[in-house]
């Protein structure tokens, strides 16, 4: 289900463009993470400060968990589940426009994922505090692209994300 907030494509694109320019120093990384958080707030219908993204590489791809930091936060849990269900459906169809709007078109791994989406099995699972998308592939290039995509998201989301261990 799409966010109830209207997307502002020009604002999102401008934020992503600013984020892409920022690289190198800690100050630039912080500026990029802030720009990504602002763009993410336009795309993701849950409170980034009350949730955590966990990206875990596996030998066959990886898992993307989004959890509410408070296990009793029913509103964010429901919003996470709706959003990840929508994202999983889009990803299965090769639509990676939301991550592109947040992270920019040059996001590592994104081009291969968009081209090779039919080589990725995408499975959504609800969890007690949110939801998980599992990405599975057999081609090493696609698996590597998933890992690159996860690393970029972990870096870009700063304290809103972490790299999990398998």
Q: Descriptors for this entry?
A:
166 residues, alpha+beta, 5-stranded mixed β-sheet, 5 strands, globular, disordered N terminus
Short description:
It contains 6 helices and 5 strands.
What this model shows, in words?
The protein has 166 residues and is of the alpha+beta class. Helix content is 49%, strand content 20%. It has a 5-stranded mixed beta sheet, covered by helices on one side. A hairpin with a 2-residue loop joins β1 and β2. It is globular.
Overall residue-averaged pLDDT value = 84
How many extended strands?
5
* Secondary structure category: alpha+beta
* Run of helices and strands: HHEEHHHEEHE
Provide a count of the helices. Answer: 6
Rg of Cα set: 15 Å
The coarse overall form would be: globular
Largest sheet: 5 strands, mixed
The largest beta-sheet arranges its strands as 3-4-2-1-5
Low-confidence stretches: 1-23
User: What percent of residues are in strands?
Assistant: 15-25%
The termini sit apart by 29 Å
Assign a percent range to the helix content. Answer: 40-55%
């Amino acid at each position: 289900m799409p966010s109830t907030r209207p997307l502002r494509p020009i604002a999102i694109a401008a934020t992503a463009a600013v984020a892409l320019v920022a690289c190198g120093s800690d100050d630039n990384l912080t500026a990029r993470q802030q720009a990504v958080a602002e763009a993410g707030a336009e795309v993701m219908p849950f409170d980034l400060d009350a949730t955590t993204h966990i990206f875990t590489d596996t030998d066959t791809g990886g898992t993307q968990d989004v959890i509410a930091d408070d296990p009793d936060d029913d509103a964010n849990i429901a919003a996470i589940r709706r959003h990840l269900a929508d994202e999983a459906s889009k990803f299965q169809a090769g639509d990676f426009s939301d991550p592109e709007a947040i992270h920019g078109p040059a996001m590592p791994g994104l081009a291969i994922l968009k081209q090779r989406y039919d080589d990725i099995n995408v499975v959504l699972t609800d969890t007690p505090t949110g939801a998980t998308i599992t990405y599975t592939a057999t081609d090493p290039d696609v698996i590597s692209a998933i890992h690159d995509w996860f690393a970029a998201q972990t870096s870009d989301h700063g304290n809103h994300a972490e790299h999990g261990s398998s």
